[in-house]
Write a structure and sequence with these properties.
Blueprint lengths: L1 H27 L5 E4 L3 H9 L7 E2 L8 H24 L10 E10 L5 E8 L6 H15 L12 E10 L2
Parallel strand pairs: 1-4, 2-5
Antiparallel strand pairs: 3-4, 3-5
Length: 168
Amino acid sequence: MRLKKTLWILLIVGIISCKQKSSETKNNLNVEPKVVNGDNELAFNEIKKLNLDSIYLNLLDPRNVTEAEYQKVGKSWTEFHKNVSDFIKSENFKWEVPDSTITVMNRIYFSKDGTVDFYTFKIRNQSVSTEKRTEYEKVLQKFCENVKIDLYRNERYAQCGKIKYVNY
């Protein structure tokens, strides 16, 4: 009887411990990369509820970095988007619109080591179809699972801005 009670207590402690670890992970935002299309209001609003801008330092704001750091941040941002563009081409992604450029607004949240935690985007060209927007989201998701930005920090950080892709 005593052994049975001990086993039940151990089982309960184990379950509680697992729940605490799970909530700790959520509180620390240790997540797989999440890519969200700004056109998907439900998903976008879920990201907004996380209040990521209060957790991730915006490194493209010159008030948050020295001038030398800002130059390095700018270089890493440019290289990151070059890599995105190259990846899109390697995936044979086509926009299938007559526009010469495609403008995309981005807000990307990075872990300390440069991996992507969250990537939100909004395609500004009205001519891009819903299907292409969804396909672009899937390509970005695949990209984010296998890439790091060349920037390491002591805190999580964000970068946001606009990118123009040449439409081939």
